[in-house]
Structures are given as structure tokens and as C-alpha cells.
Amino acid sequence: MSDSDLDVVIIVSESNEPPYRRGQRAYKHVGAIGIAKDLLVLTQEEFETQGRVPTSLARRVREEGLVLYERGKTKGSLEMVGQEPA
Questions:
Q1: pLDDT in tens, 39-68
Q2: For the residues of 3-51, what is the DSSP string, one character each?
Q3: Partners of residue 38 on adjacent β-strands
Q4: For a pLDDT cut of 70, what percent of the chain falls above it?
Q5: Burial class (CB within 10 angstroms; exposed 0-12, middle 13-18, buried 19+) of 41
Q6: 51-65 b/e with 16+ CB inside 10 Å = b?
Q7: At residue 1, does pLDDT exceed 70?
Q8: Range of the structural domain that residue 13 is part of
């Protein structure tokens, strides 16, 4: 069994809630899925700002992450973040 977990960054267009409150709401919606996970809910602006910090999770997600869902995209259009579509 691995000691790693699943890191999920959820990007919302905007929010008046503080990040910790958004995270609490995300955990309530995901619930127990039998996988260790960290959920981070950022606004688009927060993601862009944090993505400029070389050691941030947002930067790593931007460079190495996989888009699992993007509103407005059709099924089968998932691609690696930061890469041009084929």
C-alpha cells in the first residue's frame, strides 16, 4: 500500500468565501471515497497568483497536473495542463 495521496485542485471562477471554507464544502461533497486525498479549492485569480511561486502546489499542478473535468469541454477532450491539444 502506498503512502501517497491524491491531490485535487478545484478552480472556481470566483468566491467570496475564504479558502478553508471552500475546502470544507468540497470535502462534504466528495465524502469518503476510500482514497487519501487533499482538496484545495482556489479561485482562478488565486491559482494564477500561486502558480507563479516555484515551490507551490498550484505551480506543480499547472506544469504536471491532469485536467479531470472542465466546464464546457466535451467528453474525451481531457489533456495535460500546459500542453497544447493534439
A1: 889 999 999 999 999 999 899 999 999 888
A2: S--EEEEEEES--SS-HHHHHHHHHHHH---SS-EEEEEEEHHHHHHHT
A3: 7
A4: 79
A5: buried
A6: beeeeebbbebbeeb
A7: no
A8: 1-86
Q: What are phi and psi of 60, to 5 degrees?
A: -65, -40
Domain count, the chain: 1
Do the beta carbons of residue 62 and residue 51 sit within 8 Å? yes
Measured distance CA(75)–CA(86) in Å, rounded: 15
Length of the chain counted residue by residue: 86
CA distance 12 to 46: 10
